[in-house]
Amino acid sequence: MPEDFPELFGRVLDSVSHLYTVYPEMVSRVAQSPMLCKMLITDDKHTGCKIISLIAQCFRINRSVLTSLPEPVITSFLDELIYKLSSHTDSEVAAASCRALIKLAESHPPILLIYTSRYKGLRFMLNRWDGKGFQNDLETLRDLLSTTIAQSNQNKGVNNAAAKIQAAWRSYKQRCQLDRANKAIGSLQRSFRTKSDHKQRKREDDEAMRELEHQLLMARRRKLREFHEQQLSVLESLPARRVDRYITNSENNAATAIQRIWRGSRARREFYGEEITRRQQRAARIIQRGVRRWLARLQTRREGAWRGQKPISDESRNNIIELIQQQRKIFVPRELDLQELEILHNKAYGNLKQHLALSGTNRKTQVRREALLAALETDSHLLLTAPHGVKRQIMI
Known about the structure:
By secondary structure, the chain is mostly helical. 84% of the residues lie in helices and 0% in strands. The chain has helices at residues 5-22, 27-31, 34-40, 45-61, 65-68, 71-87, 91-107, 111-118, 122-125, 135-237, 243-302, 314-330, 338-385, 388-395. Helix 4 runs parallel beside helix 7 (91-107). The longest helix has 103 residues, at 135-237. The radius of gyration is 59 Å and the shape is elongated. The termini are far apart.
């Protein structure tokens, strides 16, 4: 290696540093260059210190580059810097690595989380460099690590508390859902049992009804058979000349019974129809009477409030006229121009229109109320005067 190689290498690095000082966008390309990482791995003290200083200066010039760099590139730089702190014996290289770590943390504070999570023994490893000439940098790095560890512990406590709260809330929601599910299942079971019991009772009632119908049919057939047997026995006991007369009498009696039942049914039906007609006529009379009363009350109301009052005497009329004239002399009306008269006319017209609209609405409401009262009175009168059987049917 030539003797002037370190000096030439230093000039090249200074030129690169000056170049990306002028063009900060080149920092990302320089940081992602694989040659930079290879030069950082070297064991040469002079080269290692220069490369570490270059990396620190890169991230100091363009602080936003750390946010855009891939994580493997950042971890490769940090692994090599931590390795130099842990295994290198030269204090200059260790001091340069320590200052680079501090500048990286100042440029991008979230990188401290990588220090504490990926390199957990870094704070204790710094003790081996105490008293080596860069104590202030060591203390600064220790303070940064302590602060980050305290914050991470606090965040961990907050996260644990949040996890416990979330777990309690989820368990509460799960218990509530289980309670609702149990209630819903209980309600479903009760509904199913109720429907099953209702179907069973209906089935039993249908079977009992069919059994009763069957028994009634058998009893009817039995009675009919007994009646025929009785007729046969009577016919056997009668002489031959009286058999035809007996059959004729039996047929006449049967026809008479059928006619009697039919006439009774028809008479009841006609009576019921006449009763409905009478009820309708009675209801019409009640409605007409109510309408006449309502019209009479309406006519009385329209005649005004002067009906039934005594006429005033001449003396009282003269006194009133004198009082009106005195008031006119005291309170002389002010003459109004055409515009004020028009405004007063419009105001009076609006008030009159509003009064008529409200009175019409009130009149319609009163008419509807009286019609409902008349209908209720008619229904109550019909219900009170109806026969007992009809009342029962109406109630049903």
